């Protein structure tokens, strides 16, 4: 039982990170129909930025704040300089642009930073907290707490503010949103900025556990994309559930089956789910119009 | 002039001419090897051109099939004592069968859901190649024995240049013939609308599966050639970033264009080689160029240029 609990804790920790990345995918996808393959690189910018700013002598909160702001700037630039000029291009072309952006960000990062693995000290020490026969690291609580806070904040923002409702309206129908006077360009920029901020924050809190390097983004992009698809693309609740599920599946697979094949188990589960629910767990049924 | 631009034989003749010219202007065996790599990756990407360009189905795990073909040529002779040439054929057949088994369920998925399913397949193949150390040599990969073609041992850059060029020409001819066949028209029809295609009497799932299997065979043959030419293969061949690269070749050159696919492959194979002079700027420049090309030529190089030329012509 204690082993089960232990695995559940680490699964939820990893899952919380995936959930934040999947939410980033969802936000951008809903606002613009773009699948942003540079999503995981925001996580890297958050982590690496904090590491190097702290090495330069800044305190953790200041370093983290600057790193997140930097990621947001990168997100806004990505939208303004790469996605906006290609407006109207086909989805595959847009995906290629974000893949190019991801390669570019990695390339610039290895020049600005370096090619080594880096870590951050845990925010509140390394003493494990005993819970029901298992233990949980304080940093795991930081990760889960941050994820929870961000999800709640995003929910409140979308449901209870005028700007948030404009985002939802744009996601539902871009043309209609434009007709009722919503500044769609602003909403798109907002979506890119918000996803960058969420990814970067996930990177800051996750780095003490996962370590970080200039090319770690690809892994996060892959898992975040998988989580968003498992939940059903475009559904924020699905993104969170999908992220947690993938984190749990791969941790339990590593604990009980084989640590080498944990990713294979996670992807097999996704294949099985998609075979029975071809639009993900929470995806809406749509009928193709002819 | 317009007739020439549209003719089915034009890309083939242009390709053959370029193939004949390159050895005359390529000064060293290094250049010939890079050119041979271009032909081999073009062959792998051509399969994706059929799948993505004609049938409109995405695959983000295609390097998995390339890996299967490559490791067939590595494992067959080393572990089972089979002839390497036979192993290319066996690898292609195996890849086709796996594509058929995997494709049957997952090709029912659409759009991004198909993308994540194929991506998952590619990740699993790469993981197996990476982890089954006794069979595949693990992360370090394994060496591949030389190929003997009817008693002629294929070695040296120039020989590999011609073997790979020949393979690509045959592959391009088959792809162009598929495009002009009833199957090619059926694929383009279901690309536009599956419902309308089904309404016109096309067996949509069978045609999609056929395109998937053909694409897998192309990738496996290319993988086999790649392994045999390099004499070494690592699980990197089946990695996700390799799958993305194959897709990028197809899209940068121009979705659905055979000559464009070769151009796209040339772009992504030659560019990193020329950028090694800039060392640490290599990745940044590569990413930037992909973005610039896709923003300014969203249709891909060949279709955009063709549209431009046709506009200027009377």
What would you note in describing this structure?
Chain A: Belongs to the binding-protein-dependent transport system permease family. LivHM subfamily. Chain A: Pfam families: BPD_transp_2. Chain A: It is a multi-pass membrane protein. The complex is a heterodimer of chains A (290) and B (314). Chain A is an all-alpha fold and 290 residues long. Chain A has one domain (2-216). Chain A has helices at residues 2-32, 39-55, 60-83, 91-112, 138-160, 162-172, 174-179, 184-210, 217-231, 236-257, 262-276, and strands at residues 129-131, 134-136. Chain A has a two-stranded antiparallel ribbon. The longest helix of chain A is centred in the first third of the chain and has 31 residues, at 2-32. In chain A, 52% of the residues are buried. In chain B, strand 2 and strand 3 form a beta hairpin. Chain B has a single domain, classed as ABC transporter involved in vitamin B12 uptake, BtuC (Orthogonal Bundle). Helix content of chain B is 77%, strand content 3%. The longest helix of chain B is centred in the C-terminal third of the chain and has 27 residues, at 204-230. Chain B has 15 helices and 4 strands. The model of chain B has no long low-confidence stretch (mean pLDDT 87). The relative contact order of chain B is 0.18. Chains A and B meet through helix 4, helix 9 and helix 11 of A and helix 6, helix 10, helix 12 and helix 14 of B.
Structural class of chain A: mainly alpha
Q: Give me the strand/helix succession of chain A.
A: HHHHEEHHHHHHH
| CATH domain class of chain B | Mainly Alpha
Q: Tell the overall outline of chain B.
A: globular
How many strands, what sense, and barrel or not for the largest sheet of chain B? 2 strands, antiparallel
Main location (chain A): membrane
InterPro entries (chain A): ABC_transp_permease, BCAA_transport_permease
Protein name (chain A): Branched-chain amino acid ABC transporter permease
Family (chain A): Belongs to the binding-protein-dependent transport system permease family. LivHM subfamily.
């Amino acid at each position: 039982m204690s082993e089960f609990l232990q695995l559940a804790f680490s699964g939820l920790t990893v899952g919380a990170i995936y959930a934040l990345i999947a939410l980033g995918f969802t936000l951008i996808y809903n606002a613009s129909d773009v699948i942003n393959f540079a999503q995981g690189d925001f996580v890297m910018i958050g982590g690496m930025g904090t590491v190097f700013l702290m090495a330069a002598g800044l305190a953790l909160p200041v370093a983290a704040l600057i790193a997140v702001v930097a990621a947001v700037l990168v997100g806004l630039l990505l939208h303004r300089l790469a996605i906006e000029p290609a407006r109207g291009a086909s989805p595959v072309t847009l995906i290629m642009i974000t893949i190019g952006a991801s390669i570019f960000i990695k390339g610039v990062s290895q020049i600005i930073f370096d090619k080594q693995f880096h870590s951050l000290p845990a925010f509140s020490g390394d003493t494990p907290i005993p819970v029901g026969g298992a233990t949980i690291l304080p940093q795991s609580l930081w990760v889960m707490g941050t994820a929870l806070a961000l999800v709640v904040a995003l929910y409140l923002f979308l449901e209870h503010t005028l700007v948030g409702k404009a985002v939802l309206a744009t996601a539902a129908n871009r043309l209609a949103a434009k007709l009722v006077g919503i500044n769609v360009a602003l909403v798109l920029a907002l979506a890119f900025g918000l996803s960058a901020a969420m990814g970067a924050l996930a990177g800051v809190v996750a780095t003490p556990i996962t370590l970080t390097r200039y090319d770690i983004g690809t892994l996060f992009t892959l898992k975040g994309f998988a989580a968003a698809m498992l939940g059903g693309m475009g559904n924020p609740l699905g993104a969170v559930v999908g992220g947690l599920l993938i984190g749990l599946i791969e941790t339990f697979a590593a604990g009980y089956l084989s640590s080498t094949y944990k990713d294979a188990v996670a992807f097999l589960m996704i294949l099985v789910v998609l075979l029975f629910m071809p639009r993900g767990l929470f995806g809406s049924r749509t009928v193709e119009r002819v | 002039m317009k007739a020439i631009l549209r003719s089915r034989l034009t890309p083939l003749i242009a390709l053959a001419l370029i193939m004949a010219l390159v050895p005359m202007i390529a000064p060293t065996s290094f250049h010939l090897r890079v050119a041979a790599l271009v032909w081999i990756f073009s062959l792998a990407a051509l399969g994706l051109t059929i799948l993505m360009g004609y049938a409109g189905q995405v695959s983000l795990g295609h390097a998995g099939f390339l890996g299967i073909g490559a490791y067939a040529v590595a494992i067959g002779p080393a572990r089972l004592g089979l002839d390497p040439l036979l192993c290319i054929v066996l690898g292609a057949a195996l890849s086709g069968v796996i594509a058929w088994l995997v494709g049957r369920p997952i090709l029912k998925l659409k759009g991004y859901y198909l993308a994540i399913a194929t991506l998952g397949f590619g990740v699993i193949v790469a993981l197996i190649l990476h982890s089954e150390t006794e069979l595949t040599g693990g992360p370090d990969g394994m060496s591949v024995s030389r190929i003997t073609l009817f008693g002629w041992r294929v070695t040296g850059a120039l020989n590999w240049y011609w073997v790979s060029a020949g393979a690509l020409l045959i592959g391009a001819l088959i792809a162009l013939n598929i495009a002009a066949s009833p199957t090619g028209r059926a694929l383009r029809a279901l690309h536009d609308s599956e419902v309308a295609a089904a309404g016109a009497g096309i067996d949509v799932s069978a045609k999609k599966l056929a395109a998937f299997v053909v694409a897998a065979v192309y990738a496996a043959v290319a993988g086999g050639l790649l392994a045999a030419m390099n004499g070494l293969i690592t699980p990197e061949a089946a990695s996700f970033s390799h799958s993305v690269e194959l897709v990028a070749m197809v899209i940068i050159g121009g979705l659905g264009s055979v000559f464009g696919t070769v151009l796209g492959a040339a772009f992504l194979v030659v560019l990193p080689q020329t950028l090694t002079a800039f060392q640490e700027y290599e990745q940044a420049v590569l990413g930037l160029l992909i973005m610039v090309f896709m923003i300014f030529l969203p249709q891909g190089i060949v279709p955009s240029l063709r549209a431009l030329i046709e506009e200027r012509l009377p």
